[in-house]
Design brief:
Helix content is 36%, strand content 15%. With 414 residues, it is an alpha/beta fold. The strands form four sheets. The protein has a seven-stranded mixed β-sheet with strand order 1-8-7-5-4-2-3, sandwiched between helices. The protein has a three-stranded antiparallel β-sheet with strand order 11-13-14.
Length: 414
């Protein structure tokens, strides 16, 4: 692909920011309130847990940190197995490289690219400590069947919801469909907290206590009885006086870190959550227009479509070219020449160097491999697309799929 400006490209931002977000930031600055660990973070977390439908929603500094801390909560031991999807961004499972656990890749469904529950049911066993998946592109996975298979063997299910804000499955929202949900508010996502941010959702009170310690620079460990020593005389207001002498640890599980979401990020997050219905509706309108372009062609293509009872968030717009890799390659190159940026997300993780170093090889997940190498295409789909860009995108897509390959200028459209 050429390094140039596309008439219709992937976004520099996945969400829209405007006067409401500026007003929230101005109000925070003018208030003189603390810029960390304040009322805005509390408000954003409260509203987020109400939106998702979980007992707890705890903000952190990024989606990657959310996943790292969620994996810590699994309390993995040597020999434990974690079953994961190969069809996701590397951050979903990268923290597992730090553990002496066996990682097994579960293939995906050919129509949704989500973890295939039928394959999972053949893999899960009493050795399985956890199952980790993503709602690919914003289409919720078949969670009832997945969680039933995992829970039958005592495994915890972690859902990476980075794509799925604005989606639902049978009236329930991602983040409340499994044991732990992890969200990203990165610059590219459907909701952003000024470029970075994340959230962890769950129902267990004991996990909330552990995460509160971890994200606040405290140790996560197993408490024992108080140290049998007389503490020195300390004034009652001295920081940490109570905690230092009120307990000890019998086991250290992990050192804490500073994963505190800033007040500015949380203030913007609350505004973005207000705007989520509007932003999600625009993504769906774009996706439906592109679906129509596919349906009107005679080419052997099909859209990435949500199953009945499922509402797609369209973080990604994906479709499949079923006439073979040569036709997919021709189409991708033609779209590129006509000013349409195409991306292929994501390269099968079991084939990346780090996981090959752990013994994984081609052939483990034939559906995921066939999709990336032969069939799937991702097109721009974000609320920043103008109507003119959408018209151009739909017209070029229809023309290419119908054999009308007339060259058009690749200059950007305002």
């Amino acid at each position: 692909m050429l390094d140039r400006t596309y008439r219709v490209g992937f976004p520099t931002r996945g969400s829209l920011l405007g006067t409401a977000e500026i007003a929230a930031l101005t109000g925070l600055i003018d208030s003189g309130a603390p810029l960390t660990s304040g009322a805005h973070r509390d408000r954003f977390e409260k509203r987020f847990r109400e939106h998702v439908g979980t007992a707890h929603a705890m903000s952190v500094t990024s989606g990657t940190v959310a996943l790292e801390l969620a994996i810590h909560l699994l309390d993995l031991r040597p020999g434990d197995e974690v079953i994961v999807t190969p069809q996701t961004y590397q951050a979903t499972i990268a923290p597992l490289l730090d553990f002496d656990a066996e990682v097994t890749f579960c293939d995906v469904e050919p129509d949704t690219l989500n973890m295939d529950p039928a394959v999972l049911e053949t893999l899960v066993s009493d050795r399985t400590a956890a199952v980790m998946l993503v709602h690919y592109g914003g289409c919720p996975a078949e969670m009832d069947r997945i969680t039933a298979a995992a829970h039958e063997h005592g495994a915890i299910v972690v859902e990476d919801c980075a794509h799925a804000l604005g989606a639902s499955r049978h009236g329930r929202r991602p983040g409340a469909l499994a044991d732990i949900g992890c969200f990203s508010f990165h610059n590219s996502k459907n909701l952003t907290t000024l470029g970075e941010g994340g959230m962890i959702t769950f129902d267990r009170d004991d996990w909330a206590l552990r995460l509160e310690r971890l994200r606040s620079n405290n140790v996560d460990g197993v408490f024992g009885p108080a140290v049998p020593a007389e503490p020195p005389a300390l004034l009652p207001w001295m920081k940490f006086a109570d905690e230092v002498y009120s307990h000890s640890y019998t086991e250290i599980l992990r050192a804490g870190t500073n994963a505190t979401m800033s007040e500015a990020a949380a203030a913007v997050g609350s505004v973005q959550l207000d705007r989520l219905p509007e932003l999600s509706a625009r993504r769906r309108d774009i996706a439906h227009r592109l679906d129509e372009a596919l349906a009107q062609s005679a080419a052997d293509v099909r859209p990435h479509r949500a199953p009945p009872g499922t509402e797609h968030a369209y973080h990604l717009y994906t479709f499949f070219v079923d006439s073979g890799p040569l036709e997919r390659e021709r189409l991708v190159k033609s779209l590129d020449r006509r000013g349409i940026e195409v991306q292929l997300r994501y390269f099968p993780l079991h084939l990346t160097p780090e996981w090959r170093a752990r013994g994984h090889r081609a052939g483990e997940c034939p559906v995921a491999e066939g999709s990336w190498f032969d069939r799937h295409v991702n097109l721009p789909c974000h609320p920043g697309l103008t109507d003119a860009q959408l018209d151009h995108l739909a017209e070029v897509l229809h023309a290419e799929l119908s054999g009308e390959r007339v060259f058009q200028s690749s200059q950007p459209i305002s």
